[in-house]
TrEMBL record:
It comes from Brooklawnia propionicigenes. It comes from the Bacteria. GO terms for biological process: response to amino acid. Residues 1-50 form the HTH asnC-type domain. Keywords: DNA-binding, Transcription, Transcription regulation. This is Lrp/AsnC family transcriptional regulator. One of its GO terms (cellular component) is cytosol. One of its GO terms (molecular function) is sequence-specific DNA binding. It holds the Pfam family AsnC_trans_reg.
Length: 140
């Protein structure tokens, strides 16, 4: 069972509190916005998108005002998993999952490089992906 779906009774036992306390604390974290949701961990290959890539995008200086609009538009494109604003030499990082290299090529050429606002792109394919295993702990 995924950690996001742990029964309240198991959570309470794990952290040595009453079930009602665990329930109240989880709902307080949700209500305060600390926990924004519990999400499925999808096997991308199982849904026909085994090729994962990270695409760094540099936007033309004259198009900086369009950065948020560009990011929001990209977030709605098929195959896009996440879009990040970056500090540094690149402006955006787009994480995509595609069916094959032809789909990735078409996305980069047609959705990115055809737009005048895009100065350059750099694509890296993901060979393997590891998630952090340690829970986030509030700084003391």
């Amino acid at each position: 069972m995924a950690r996001g779906r742990i029964p309240n009774s198991t959570l309470a036992q794990t952290v040595s509190v009453a079930e009602s306390t665990a329930h109240n604390r989880v709902h307080a974290l949700i209500d305060s916005g600390v926990i924004r949701g519990v999400h499925a961990d999808v096997d991308l290959a199982a849904v026909g998108r085994p090729l994962e890539a990270l695409i760094q995008i540099q936007i033309q200086p004259s198009a900086r005002a369009q950065l948020r609009t560009k990011a929001e538009r990209l977030a709605h494109c098929p195959g896009v998993i996440e879009v990040y604003f970056l500090a540094g030499s690149r402006d955006l990082l787009v994480r995509v999952a595609m069916a094959d290299s032809a789909g990735l090529r078409d996305f980069v050429l047609n959705e990115l490089n055809q737009h005048a606002a895009v100065a350059s792109t750099e694509t890296s394919t993901v060979l393997e992906h590891f998630r952090g295993v340690h829970p986030l702990i509030a700084p003391t």
